[in-house]
Write a structure and sequence with these properties.
elongated, two-stranded antiparallel sheet
Length: 147
């Protein structure tokens, strides 16, 4: 009889531990799948026109509440946060590329200003020196072909 009581007490303790484990698992699942309400807005615009003239226009704002699980809301929030982070990164990348493009445009303008014109390539020189007719005054006109 004492053996039987000891066995039943041990079984009772084991069942109590098992119940405690199941109770904590149940609390986790309830928190995970708890229902919450989300308000959804929708706009409906109805327009009636006759020969390019607005006759009547109505805009309705319909409000509805929907029950969703907390897990769905958590996933939606995580998705929105990931999208916002992507948009921020794309904006920063666009700003960097825009600044790089502006810098390159400025460099191209400076290089265009530094390019020699046709007048700097051609010239007229007057001097005194040896010519095909002897030694004397000479006028020389020339153009430089390569930079």
């Amino acid at each position: 009889s004492q053996r039987r009581q000891g066995a039943l007490a041990a079984e009772l303790r084991q069942n109590a531990v098992h119940i405690a484990v199941l109770d904590s698992a149940l609390k986790l699942e309830r928190a995970k799948f708890r229902a919450d309400t989300v308000t959804v807005f929708r706009r409906v615009t109805s327009t009636v026109t006759r020969l390019d003239t607005l006759v009547q226009s109505d805009t309705l704002r319909l409000t509805d509440t929907v029950k969703v699980t907390v897990e769905v809301v958590r996933e939606a929030v995580e998705t929105l946060n990931a999208c916002r982070a992507t948009i921020r990164e794309c904006g920063a990348l666009r700003a960097r590329e825009q600044a790089r493009g502006d810098s390159l445009d400025a460099r191209v303008k400076l290089l265009e200003k530094a390019r020699p014109s046709i007048f700097s390539r051609c010239g007229l020189s007057v001097g005194y020196g040896a010519t095909d007719k002897g030694f004397g005054p000479a006028v020389v006109a020339g153009c430089k072909i390569a930079p």
